[in-house]
From TrEMBL:
<dbReference type="GO" id="GO:0008757">
    <property type="term" value="F:S-adenosylmethionine-dependent methyltransferase activity"/>
</dbReference>
<protein>
    <submittedName>
        <fullName>Class I SAM-dependent methyltransferase</fullName>
    </submittedName>
</protein>
<keyword id="KW-0808">Transferase</keyword>
<dbReference type="InterPro" id="IPR013216">
    <property type="entry name" value="Methyltransf_11"/>
</dbReference>
<feature type="domain" description="Methyltransferase type 11">
    <location>
        <begin position="47"/>
        <end position="139"/>
    </location>
</feature>
<dbReference type="Pfam" id="PF08241">
    <property type="entry name" value="Methyltransf_11"/>
</dbReference>
<dbReference type="GO" id="GO:0032259">
    <property type="term" value="P:methylation"/>
</dbReference>
<keyword id="KW-0489">Methyltransferase</keyword>
<dbReference type="InterPro" id="IPR029063">
    <property type="entry name" value="SAM-dependent_MTases_sf"/>
</dbReference>
Length: 200
């Protein structure tokens, strides 16, 4: 079973109890920062790639944005639809093949899922494709100190939770540029998380 299948299996298994899981503990550090960044835009279309159970959208004000979420865990999408109702549209799908037209979104959020992607360049190319010119990409992910990150990235290959690769600031900048995105900022958002922002 590859990392992709491990990730799907892991999140299908914990979908119903996700809000009580260890996975959520570090992600909470990112919610307020992401919401603040999103609300710098008065209105528009927002896509959450790897949206999980839709927690982020429950925090955003009603009626201000067109909200779309995609995740390849069917059980997570079921939870998201129950949680958000008509506030957002959710799809089961693959981040490597986003089912949206070019230049569709003002903001794309990828919160605590980028480190699961075994083909990050393909995912970023897809995000770049569906992002509008001048649109922002917000990637919140676990942050690992520089000295231990290489070791952790070896260990994650044997993880049952589908973790694949953790990125540092400079590495993220390089893959942004490689895939047609301009790095804007890097911010530590907690003890174990960071926010990478890029623009198309």
């Amino acid at each position: 079973m590859d990392a992709k299948e491990k990730t799907k299996q892991h999140f299908d298994e914990i979908a119903h109890e996700y809000n009580n899981s260890d996975d959520l503990k570090f992600i909470k550090e990112l919610y307020d920062v992401l919401v603040n960044e999103i609300q710098k835009v008065e209105s528009g279309k927002i896509l959450d790639v790897g949206c999980g159970n839709g927690n982020l959208f429950t925090i955003l004000p009603d009626g201000k944005y067109e909200l779309f979420g995609i995740d390849f865990s069917e059980k997570m999408i079921i939870e998201a639809k129950e949680k958000c109702g008509d506030k957002a549209s959710f799809l089961v799908g693959d981040a490597e093949k986003l089912p949206f037209d070019d230049n569709s979104f003002d903001i794309i959020v990828c919160n605590a899922s980028f480190h699961h992607y075994i083909n990050p360049d393909i995912v970023l190319m897809e995000m770049q494709r569906v992002l509008k010119d001048g649109g922002k990409l917000l990637i919140g992910d676990p942050y690992m100190p520089t000295l231990v990150r290489p070791v952790i990235n070896i260990i994650t290959k044997f993880s049952d939770e589908g973790d694949y690769h953790f990125y540092g600031e400079n590495e993220m900048k390089k893959i942004f540029l490689k895939n047609g995105l301009t790095p804007l900022s890097f911010q530590r958002t907690g003890n174990h998380t960071a926010l990478h922002i890029a623009e198309k």
